[in-house]
Give the backbone structure.
Amino acid sequence: MQARPTWVIGAGGLLGRAVVRELESRGAPVLTSKILWSDPEAALQELRNGAERLHRAADSGPWTIAWCAGAGVTGTSQASLEAELSLFAEALDAFGEILCADGGEMGAMFLASSAGGVYAGSSTPPFTEDSPVQPLAPYGFAKLRAEAAVTEFAKRTGVRTLIGRVSNLYGPGQNLQKPQGLISVFAKAHLTGAPVSVYVSLDTLRDYLFVDDASRLVSDGLSRLVRPDVRFGETVVKILASQRADTIGNLIGACRAIFKRRPLIILGASPFAKAQAHDLRLRSVVWTELDEHPVTPLAVGINNTVQEVQRLAASGKL
């Protein structure tokens, strides 16, 4: 039986790059695309082209799409989120037209969502896949709409779908220009000497997931998705997390041990602070066998991230 080709969308991002590495290490054929997201018309055409390439690579056999793209963060404007959702919906229509003309039973798809976004206003942590979702910001509501869109796509086409609600992702390769990723921000500040503004209390609890652990969970999840007990057209929601909680204060302490000095922290205020939950502990109760692998210790992950930022600084790319 031929290997299942996987098209990773968003292969230039933190999660996408790691998923490509993980899949290739397993011997899976991987396709990627360079997509100009700032030009929706050009982006849609490239997405159509990518679907055609995947269709040819699959040669009437099974195929997989891993959608790891997404430029939005908690502070992203409603207009930008609407544009991103519109393009995602058009892409799904194109996938249905090109890849599922004779039914989508040969297809599988992963969508990266945000645990922090959808559970921000939920009560009674730790949150599981059974917990009621309650976003606090447009970003979280947009993630739920994307989840609903891919769920409807699965029902309509027969494609089996996995939605991964990812916790706070970090690691080498994070976009240092985006206003997210506190660990990468601390690493950059360590090298530049710039202070870091923190807009939440230091006892705020977060689940930090190292990117290589996340890519393993995604790859294992895709393998699990195509087993016979998952029905055609079914959508499975799983939390992808380390399932351990650290306060911002603990994070600062871990950085201090690695940097050999305490990060310069400025406690400030932000209009986005009200969209941040105080306690975002997470626990997965779905496909728990995927969570049996040990996760990367926080100190090891921070050190790897710092080394990458140091390489960027040395090459003048910071």
User: Anything to note?
Assistant: The chain is about 40% helix and 15% strand.
